[in-house]
Amino acid sequence: MGDAGQTRLAGGQQVSKNSARIECYGTVDELNAFFGAARVTATEAGSRVESIGRFAQQLRRIQHELFNLGSILATLPEDVHPKQARITQTDIERLEREIDQANAELAPLRSFVLPGSTRLEAELHICRTVCRRAERLLVSLAGQEQVPPETVRYLNRLSDALFVWSRWVNHVLRADETLWEPNQAATGQAE
Fold first, then answer.
1. Which domain holds residue 29?
2. In 12, 29, 153, 156, which residue has its Cα 20 to 30 A from 134's Cα atom?
3. How far apart are CA 46 and CA 188, in angstroms?
4. 107 within a domain of the structure (yes/no)
5. Could you read off the pLDDT of 59-74 as tens digits, one per residue?
6. What is the rounded CA–CA span in Å between residue 191 and residue 39?
């Protein structure tokens, strides 16, 4: 089956590996893997900075939430078990509080940020971009099939959180943000 480009959903339905649903929860799985890398980096930095160590635990919690999201996406609505793990409004509200807490410590943004001031910040930006892709795929899937509306809201809030957290870790690690300077591109420089 797998070698023929087919796989099964949680309810046993056979589908193509390039179906919108598989593409969507596969991207959520990819996002979770990148979260794992960021969590390792945060754990290592947390040995020097306590707040980053606590942040590593947030990343771990979100990895569990991403598995919950993948589980619900791998299951057609009619096959969802009442006790099946899922994303809830509580998860979304917690992300919103965490965004507000981190943002409260940051200076207003003056320009777009270029990823790469610290390893952890760059890894969080990778997570952000993969999260945005997962969100786009989920919105596309929601246009074709029924998906819980909390799943789209969760990914939207999570990508916002990742942007704020990328700035926050640089702030906590006392690393300067690399801001976009349009005139630094070759096209903006005089010969």
1. 2-8+15-179
2. 12
3. 40
4. yes
5. 999 999 999 999 999 8
6. 44
